[in-house]
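look at this stuff:

>
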Amino acid sequence: MPREYLILTWIGLSLLSGAWANTTDTGHWGVDVFYRAGTDDAQKDQLLLPFGARLNFRSKHFNSDAIDLISDSDNQNLEKLQALCKRYREEKEFVLRCLINKKPQEQTIAPAVPEDIDRTICLEAATGYGTIPQLSTLATTITSIDPTNRCKPFPGVFSSDLPPQTVVTRPEKMRPDPFGPGRQLSCDPKDFNPAYSQPEELPENDPICEPSKLSNFWSQEAVGSPETKELMDRVLRERQAAGRTAPARARVGVIDGGFGPMNEVGTRLPTLGQSLQQCLTTNATTTPASCGLRPENQKSTHGIQVSQLIAGTSPVGIGQRADITRVASVGTHFSEAADHMLAAPPPPPIVNLSMRIEGDAAVPFFENLSQHTTTVAAAGNFFPAPITEANLKASILVGSLQPNGAPSSFSNEHNDVAISVPVDNNLAYSFGHEGGNKVLKKFGGTSAATPMVTGALSNVQSFLPGITSAELKKLLQNTAIPTTGTRFGKNGAGSLNAYALLRVAIRMAQDWPANRNTINGNTSAPESPFNFVAESERYFSKARRLLGQFNSCANLKEGLAALRTAFFLDPTNNNIRQELYTLYATAGYKAQAEFYGNVETAMKNPTTAQTIKNRSLMRAVSAGNLEEVKRAIKLGANVHTATGILYAEGGASVNGNAQDVARSYIKDPAKRAAILSYLDSLP
């Protein structure tokens, strides 16, 4: 991971030595005032002017106002905002409480300069947002893999025989192509003409430019997305043939930091619900509040990319029957977004929040929202900082893993994290928008992990209407894939298994909801909806037979498909995992091989083992626990390795070592001094 990278956000936090460095903090955007029952709008308005305040948003659902000071500069001063809240609290006849508001952060990872984001643009793609099946050919197109080598089922299980696309990497660094349209460019710097390109600007360790590192859409592969799509397609065909209705579309809401071009492409994004499509189409230029969008967010495409991972066409999207029916871009106050989600009942059964929600003011809104819908939220990208109190109110918290299954260095951890997803900071590309063109943007962090879980849960929602948040969480945990990054209980029960989730939902749908008590039953019992051991063995036998013949391309590809299905049905079977490890490793995908392989074997990988030791040290340092710090050092943690994530100016963050973490996160001066003294004494 680079030394410094940008968290795509408008907030700037400055946490130094466990305290605010000064009274000016660009993360503050006013206050939220909660009123007593019976307080009318006129009474609320009477309090504004004497306090030098102005109304930003009046909630219809929460009986609260989002307020800030008339002077914009005063709104960046923590002491003045605290004074405003104090005056409101004194109005006990009308006011229950007043809390400082902070603007949410998008939890994605990107390079340090926004306009320098790694991206690939398809100049000739004849597809709209959400319909990108042919983009699975990018890796083979760019690297000019032998077109006659059809027996190799890699890169990725999404390989396709569709025509190649014209591809340009990093278009912002490209001059006009003198060879005209149709020129196929390579990722190899030596293949670039310096007259119109800058080779030094090419991406490094990229799954497209270096397919030997990771296969196409490797993250979607790791959660069983191709198998999930095939299964859903088969169910739809069978139901149609039998004259039965298709599984219901699953309604999903998204609260995010920006939906840049969504108003421009509403009619071309088929996964949007009809009401949202109509709103965006009718109001294409104004993007009114009724659509849930705010003008100041239109430069950001974070929400678009999140939406693609939830409901975009495979291979990008995980939700096969998901409709995004309600969106809310967070402008200044989380209360406004939460109010929009709940304004017109019923709310979407699942709401995605790839955000870090800070400040006490957001807690009651988040808590209330989670009581009305299943909220799926990002754990955050600031390990070892604690997960915010608001995010802990989510129904389901989601962490991030590396491609090999080890924990992502930035992913926040907590006992309440339900599940993790292998996305890291290098997720296979999802759609963005660039100057009117359809582009593929690198996207990662817990921002990317969260919508993949949301998409998988939407598949369940299609078959099990009325399923509760607690039941969905249990389904995630009972089907999770064991990994090195989740074996210690801080990053969830395991890695997301979208295929097993859908299989369980289809099984349970036959007697739903009468059989809902089986969700909490013995998962290894023969009658358990989670028990696929016998079926997994049958797929495993089929895979060994097909892979052992090597007499046709079809057998090889079918054998890989059978082996992967066996794995997702029973990810605890180490014989299956070893075979899958061998297949991926032989193909050159070492990180993915480790993810699919035996967890105990993966733990012996020196890099993985060191990562886990270093995280233990960072965890102990941030907690101010000197004895645990000493224990981590004794077990081999490296005190000098910069594996902690620290806040920096302007919304950026930097990697820090153990001493940096101690200075930033330990609030108790005595504990901080003791740990720094010990760390400084080490060689």
